[in-house]
Specification:
Strand content: 15-25%
Bound molecules: adenosine-5'-diphosphate, magnesium ion
Structural class: alpha/beta
Radius of gyration: 32 Å
CATH class of one domain: Alpha Beta
Number of strands: 22
Amino acid sequence: MEKWKTPVNSAMQSLMRPAILNPLFADVTVLAGVGPKIAALIARAAGPRIVDLLLTAPAGLVDRSFRPKIADAPMGRILTLDITVDRHDAPPKGRRLPYKVICSDETGYVTLVFFHARADYLKKTLPEGARRLVSGKIEDFNGARQMAHPDYIADPDKPGDMPEFEPVYPLTAGLSAAVMRKAAAQAVARAPDLAEWQDESWLKARGWSGWKTAMQALHGPRDQSALSLLSPDRQRLAYDELLANQLALMLIRKARIKSRGRAINGDGRLLAKAKKALPFSLTDAQKDALGDVFADMRAPERMVRLLQGDVGSGKTIVALFAMLAAVETSAQAALMAPTEILARQHLETLAPLAAAAGISMEILTGRDKSAARAEKLARLGAGEIDILIGTHALFQEEVAFRNLALVVIDEQHRFGVRQRIALTQKGPKPDLLVMTATPIPRTLSLTAYGDMDHSRITEKPPGRKPVDTRTVPMSRIDEIIAGLNRAAAKGEQAYWVCPLVEESELLDLTAAEERFESLKAAIGGERVGLVHGRMSGPEKDAVMERFYRGELAVLIATTVIEVGVNAPNATIMIIEHAERFGLAQLHQLRGRVGRGDKKSSCILLYKPPLGETATARLKVLRDTEDGFVIAEEDLRLRGAGDVLGAAQSGFPRFRLADIAVHGELLAAARDDAKLILERDAELKSPRGEALKTLLYLFSRDDAAKLLSAG
Ligand code: ADP
Ligand code: MG
């Protein structure tokens, strides 16, 4: 078993982490004023450990440094007054009436107002005749200035009783700003002095401070510019995070390469036969990608390659050729798809080519039961099946290959890293080719897939007609339905997508069902189908197959058709509430049409008014069909957090870095990490030791462990 696969054991983890970091990895309950209840709230807002507080940047700032005279004090803005306490009014009679303290400076009067006040306490904090600083907002009450419940009352002779600047942290229901602020301040106070892990000359060139100073500045902003993602201190800390990310990915990648794979050197005989049976020749982009893959397979190291290419760019054939090369060496290959129907489509398109090459290709899915399944498994174990196509079913324990040399995974996003690893454990270190149709901006793929090599298919097969893309307001939906009816009468097929927003799945389902009814009425009950996320796999597949076979004219779907179903005759894609989708998603959906030789169209129905960003996003989609351009624009327009979406697993969530803003730093971090490991592969130098600490600071124990294990 290779080291990089070993699950991280938390007890081990704390043993290996440098002791100097231990205070930061303590539970927040060790902080004053944080009991189990508040700890749970802090865990929700920031995380359960002290380091999580450190890595949570303030979202805002309260500035109490504004100190006008009473006569000049504006209403509604936080300010601090330097006043003398004149007198306390007699305590009020009714419980609902406020307690009042009259104060002044040389320009005028202000009344401090307290509800449910305790007179003895107020007498002590605001003794008559004393000078005090009070901070809060002034309001007008019947022409008199008053300040209700000042945020602070401080003695001017005791500086420090009132902070001039207060960071405001992201909160959660039940967690007060003051409690969070106090907890964060304690976390910062616990930040140890750590040996510098950044290159001194790089820090100097950038004008960046040391880690601790930058951390203190992050949590002690004194003006708005300190909150900016581009402030020097924030950049320094973001760079730390990015460097930890890149270093970790490179260490993992190196460990994997060290774990030798096998050299797969096909003789080309099967490839030649399949090529002859192919009705087209490969595009240059496909040839380049194949060149990368073959070079990897021939090398004794293990291949771990990501193949990105738009929907319809022809990734499947690249996968087939790679698999044939494996079979040429008398080994086996597996192709895993995320759904049953996709697995079947792969089989359908690839079977004739497999037959032409004279090899045996089979499919294994959840539908295979008892006897038939046992028979397939026996043949697989005996090496009588050369290429096995399937779904998650390929992961199951009993599935044993005789000699699995190559694993291809289609539509990467649907599988977790763990599944990826499970399948590669089914052979003696098989090569791995992962294919995704979701173009990922370069910067993002560096952070998410930095441990893989990358190939991109940026060109589409010849003869594709551009999809006519239009944006249409919802108010014109009747026209659209009428047009759809005419197209259906002519035998055209259309997808109609209703968005599924997670928070109210039921509501969305209702919307889709209503659309289903109205389209059935307009087009004919037998000719319209509906698929949605609450249907079982086989139910969904049955409807999609009817569409695929041309029995249905319109397929209404929540986003389940997003993943590569291929219905080459479909020429119309209608997307309702297009403004609610991510650009990448819209692009993927559009990619479902325009696959055959007929002219296709895509209608983006939106609900006005559209904001500036939404307008810009839909325009990008009208202007280009290049998924990589769209992905970059999406990142630029929405920022990294939104592009990734919380649901998309596999992407690291950065705490201090923002890829949309710090892309340039990421590129630098990548170069830096490369250089560091070239010079000091085991991180043994003093700077190397400091970098190890950096890895643990960002919880990259998985990568750090690879080092000390030697
Ligand atoms: P992807 O998996 O990248 O979305 P596919 O591999 O399913 O795309 O290919 C889409 C379609 O394009 C298929 O019908 C395939 O046969 C066809 N195709 C692939 N490569 C070429 C090519 N070089 N020339 C013409 N057609 C191609
Ligand atoms: Mg595909």
